[in-house]
Amino acid sequence: MWWQSAVVYQIYPRSFADSDGDGVGDLGGIRSRLDYLAELGVDVLWLSPIYRSPQDDNGYDISDYRDIDPTFGTLEQFDALLADVHERGMKLVMDLVVNHTSDEHPWFVESRASRDNPRRDWYWWRDEPTNWRSFFSGPTWELDETTGQYYLHLFSRTQPDLNWENPEVRQAIYAMMRWWLDRGVDGFRMDVVNMLSKDPALPDAPGGDGSPYYISGPRIHEFMQEMHREVFDGRDGLMTVGEMPGVTLEDAQLFTDPARHELDMVFQFEHVQLDQDGSKWNHHPLRLRDLKRSFGRWQAGLAERGWNSLYWNNHDQPRIVSRFGDGSPEAAKMLGTVLHLHRGTPYVYQGEELGMTNFPFTSIDEFRDIESLNHYAEEGPSSLPALRDRSRDNARTPMQWDASPNAGFTTGTPWLAVNPNHTEINTEAQRADPGSVFHHYRRLIELRHTEPAVVHGSFSMLLEEDARVYAFTRAHGGTELLVLGNFSGEEVPIDLSGWEDAEVVIGSPGAALGPWEGRVYRRYWR
Ligand code: NOJ
Fold this sequence. Notes:
By secondary structure, the protein is of the alpha/beta class. Helix content is 28%, strand content 18%. It has an eight-stranded parallel β-sheet with strand order 11-10-9-5-2-1-15-14, with helices on one face. It has a five-stranded antiparallel β-sheet with strand order 16-17-18-22-20. The relative contact order is 0.10. The protein binds 1-deoxynojirimycin.
């Protein structure tokens, strides 16, 4: 499939580029930066939601699925953007948020109006709440005064969950998806799509963790197959990826087995939870062995059937270079090398290709994210250090285009502060520097496009117990690649027996790996 050799670039439109000076990124801004993305060499752009929305969760709360939010532009501008993307040989994938809508969506406005409204059953209403806790703090149930019942919201109270048991809901969503595909979009990234099917009993759960009743619920595979039939059958050249917190490998095999006609790939979360203790707000340093064990398992588990997506960053994760690395350009390059040489489709989150880092937050006033603000409201000032390290706003600071005061992101006041390190870390400086993280990512993407072993090669993990060096091989036909990454700030000697004459395709040769150094060798069998 074409997406097996593709690299996807995620744009968080609010923070990418602002064309009208209101301090919020927009479609005009994205359009003006397409040549940059083409230069990087990515194949697909995924846009975080740009639909009409009150922006309570930055667009993951949609009030009209068939319009563009005025913050970002108009449908006409969207069509022009899509045409420009296609003209450059790239594709465009939309975010699909259909586990919930905004509470301002007309469907919910009707649903809450009365108990006998025809859309009442489009959402989950109950006389009594259960003890589930929401992802964004507090309970998942909100009392609605108008009718005296509670509605379910796994996320914020402004994001009521749709009832996928109702076939009318499903058909309305499928019709909307077809409408976008008819407009020319090339697929969807599907928000928390493994939560669509819920156990309709919605029972109390130990500790308030309701996830057993909505993660890969009883009808999820049926829904995915139905969606495939209703929306994707008979259309070529598309790509689908399901975001799936808590998905197991066994389930991912089912979701991505091409013979089952569900999804092309899923985002799993195991590797970005390895440094967490129970909750995302408690963490310890990564143990490299855990990372190898996890990736090794997923690489093997999806080798025969299915396909992996590969990511370090997205708009919900703190910046990887500050998390698994030391914030340096060397660490950014090494992390890129290790990720991109795995088998699967790599995703680059805006700014990752520059080694953009976490933000030096010092006060709660600097945060905008609903999850972070709710957490602070519940936990108080003692939660500030955790927020500084883990808040989603770390990923959402404006893209760093140049060294000017607002990093070239806006001529106005940015909605979220620009990272002070933009004077050093920015596209202008890096495009001019052949040794930059940017050019390194460009080479990684090019390698995937030109070396079939990167796309198709079988995967073998090496040095499983080593606490500093990540190492693996990829083999395809007569070609073998050796990938090495030093996850430490110390120089580490390496054993290269058998690889003495191999060509170094990424990085530079040497008998040791320097601090945070990554390297790729290639050799041929006859
Ligand atoms: C996952 C999205 O990536 C996140 O940003 C959002 O807050 C939740 N789903 C709810 O839509």
